[in-house]
# Entry
Amino acid sequence: MLQAHDRLLVVGITGAGKSYWTKAHVVERSSRLFAWDPHGDYAQASVRTTLVGAAKALPQASRGNFRLSVVEPIGSAAFFDRFESWCDLAMTLERTTLLVEECVAIRSSTSARQKLTLLATQARHRGSPLVMVAQRAVHVHPDARSQISRLVAFRQTHPADVRALSEITGKNAEGVTMLPRHVPWVWSESDTWQK
# Structure
């Protein structure tokens, strides 16, 4: 179970198992979840909605348990503006797991990256853990990466990603290049790798 101070990064190449793992270990175990879900990966385990729908539902839902996934296709004209608005809504929630899927899509917007970094540094003060999911570790902005308290790394093949994982953990992360499908390495601030 995630704690309020947790900042979890889940990374891996396409098909490595990161969305499957996130569904099983985060989404289905969270009684209160607010997800930015561009592909609708978590919509089966939550209520799929738009940003406008979430803004209407959250005042009532925030008093109890809820799982909301805001689905906004990558490349839509309003993608970055809506992500920033999602972040603003997320910052109003207390004791709610915040999940950002496809962090790579956010990296090309300075203001969206700043909003993600704000979540990474400040949401814990509201008792809300943050889960960031990305194909490549290096595509998560260094300011957000620096806040990671737990890492679930599926196979990464690019040397820049291996270096980013080594920087996060302070350990040699070369082993992630050889991981089989659906097998992660897990690291936490306790400074250990587990297979």
About this structure: Residues 7-194 form a domain with the Rossmann fold fold (CATH 3.40.50.300).
